[in-house]
Amino acid sequence: MTIYIDNDYKCHTSPGAGLTAIETDAFNGKCRQYIEGYRFVPAGCTWTREDGVEFTGEMVAPFRDYSILEELQSVYDEQQQTINEYEAALSEIEQALGV
Amino acid sequence: MIFNMVGGGGGSGATLVVSSPANVSVTVSKDDKSYTKNSGSLGSTTFKGLATGTWTVTISGNGQTATKTIEITADYSITIAFFSATINITYPANSTCVVTNSGGTTIASNTNTESSAKTWTATVGATGTYTVTATATDGSGKTKSTTVSITTDGQSESVTLSYELYLYKNGDKCTDVGGDWSLRKGYAEGVSVSYKTDYAQLNVAAETNQYMGNGFWYKNLDITNYSKLCAIVTYNTVANSGNLMIAVCNSATDTPISSNVARKDIGSASATVPFELDISSITGSKYIGIGTHMAETNSGTAKIQAVYLV
Fold first, then answer.
1. What is the average pLDDT value for chain A, to the nearest integer?
2. Which residue on chain B is closest to A62 by alpha carbon?
3. Is pLDDT of B2 > 60?
4. If you average pLDDT over every residue of chain B, what do you get?
5. What are the φ/ψ torsions at residue A27 (nearest 5 degrees)?
6. Looking at residues B182-209, what average pLDDT do you find?
7. Which of B278, B282, B285, B309 has the most A C-beta neighbours within 10 Å, making it the best mutation to test the interface with A?
8. Using an 8 Å Cβ cutoff, are B107 and B122 in contact?
9. Of B153, B155, B157, whose CA–CA distance to B64 is shortest?
10. Which residues pair with B27 in a beta bridge?
11. What is the pLDDT of residues B65-96, one digit of tens each?
C-alpha cells in the first residue's frame, strides 16, 4: 500500500503538500487512525527524537500511545467483521433470488 | 581523676561540633577534663575552647553507647551514631546519585561528572530500607533505582545501577530478566540458535521452494519504563535488506516482519554500535527480540553480542 510521510516521518493515508509517498506492506489491514499514529523512517534516513536520540531507518514505530492505536484497530476489525457478515448474508440472499 | 563537667569549656581553643542522634548525652573527654551536653532535638552539640590533642567523644542514650577518638588541631566536626552500615554504589557516568530512607529523607548524595561509571560509599546510621537512585544530568530523564535492606550494624552492601537492562550480553542469556530466550523456528523450522561462549548465533538455513521466513528469537517482558530497544550484531551474512530486524510483537506467534508493533531493520548489516528501535510509545508486556525473514534459497548467520533496553 501507499502511505505518505511528512518531514517528521509521521504517516498519512492521503497525499498532501510536503508529503512523500512510500510503498510498504507494513500497514496492510490497518485502519487510518492506526496508520496515522505511526512513524515510518525509510532506509538511509535518520529521525531525531525530542530527547536527542537518533534512530536510523528503516524503522516503523508508533509515536502515539500504542495501546490506543491497538484499541482503534480492534474496533475497526470488529466493524469489518460485521460488514463481511452482512455482505455474506446479502450474497446468499441474492443467490437465493437469482439476482 | 576525671572532672566531669557540664558545659563545654570556653575561652581560647578549638571548637568541636558533634553531629549525633537527637536528644542523647554527648561527652568529650581528654586527660582529666570531661564535658557533657545533650544533643537536643537537632542532634548537634558544640564544644568550645578545647585544647589540641586526642579527645574521646562518647554518646549514650536509650541503652546504647558509641565512642570515637579524634585528634583536634583546629576547629573540628564529627558525626557519631549508634549504628553504622555502608552501601557501596556504582552508578553511571554524568549522573547524580542519592540515597534516601523509607521516609524519603536524603541520607547521602554524590555526583559523577566523568564519562565512565563511578563508585562511592554511603554511610547510613540506622536499619531500614534505603532507596538508591541515579539520575542522568544530560536532561534525558534517565533514572534508575534500587532498594537496599540494612539490618545489622557494620553491614556492607554493594549495588550497581545502570540505565541499560540487558536481556542478552556477551554469552550471558540474562535469565534473571524475562527468563530464558525462546525461538520460533519459522517456516519449515529453518531458523536455529547456537549459544557460543560470548555471543548468540542465529542460523537461517536455505531450502529450495521454502519461504524460510518469520523466525523470532525473543523474550517476553514489560517494557513500560523503557524508550529504546537495542541490539549489537557484529557479524551478519543474512542476505537481502529487511531480513534481520529488531522487533516488538504482541504475541510469540506474530511474525516480526509483518505483524509487529514496531521494528527496526538490520538487513545484512553489522556494526560494533547498536541498532536501535524507538519504543517510547509502547507500554505493557510484549515479545521482543530479533526476527528473521528470508526468501527461499537464502541462508545466513548472525552473531548477536547484546540485546538490551534503555
1. 95
2. B281
3. no
4. 88
5. -120, 25
6. 84
7. B278
8. yes
9. B153
10. B36, B58
11. 888 999 999 999 999 888 889 999 999 989 99
Q: What is the mean pLDDT of residues B24-46?
A: 96
What DSSP string runs through B28-74? EEETTEEEEEE-TTTTEEEEEEEPSEEEEEEEEETTEEEEEEEEESS
> Can you tell me whether residue B143 is helix, strand or coil?
strand
Cβ pairs A/B, distance under 8 A: 62
A56: how many CB neighbours lie within 10 A of its CB?
Answer: 17
B66-92 residues labelled b (16+ CB within 10 A) or e (exposed): beeebebeeebeeebbbbbbebebbbb
Q: How many whole angstroms separate alpha carbon A66 and alpha carbon B262?
A: 10
Q: Which of B280, B286, B310 to mutate to test the interface with A (most CBs of A within 10 A)?
A: B280
| Interface membership of A23 toward B (CB under 8 Å) | no
C-alpha cell recorded at residue A22: 512510500
Q: Give every CB contact of residue B112 below 8 A, 6+ residues apart in sequence.
A: B91, B92, B93, B94, B95, B96, B97, B118
Type of residue numbered B30: K
What is the number of other CB atoms lying within 10 angstroms of the CB of residue B308?
A: 21
Phi/psi for A36 (5° steps) reads -80, 5
> B258 vs A25: CB contact, 8 Å cut-off?
yes
> Other C-beta atoms within 10 Å of A90: how many?
10
3-state SS class at A71: helix
- A42 alpha-carbon distance from chain centroid: 16
Chain B contact for A93 (CB, 8 A cutoff): no
Residues of A in contact with B291 (CB under 8 A): none
pLDDT higher than threshold 50 for residue B298: yes
Q: Which residues pair with residue B60 across a beta bridge?
A: B25, B65
A32 at interface of B, judged by CB pairs closer than 8 A? no
Contact yes or no for B47/B88 (Cβ under 8 A) = no
Enter the C-alpha cell of residue B18.
558533634
> Nearest-CA neighbor of B186 among B98, B115, B258, B235?
B258
Other C-beta atoms closer than 10 Å to the C-beta of B165 total 17
Copy the grid coordinates of residue B279. Answer: 519504543
Report yes or no: A43 at the B interface, CB cutoff 8 Å.
Answer: yes
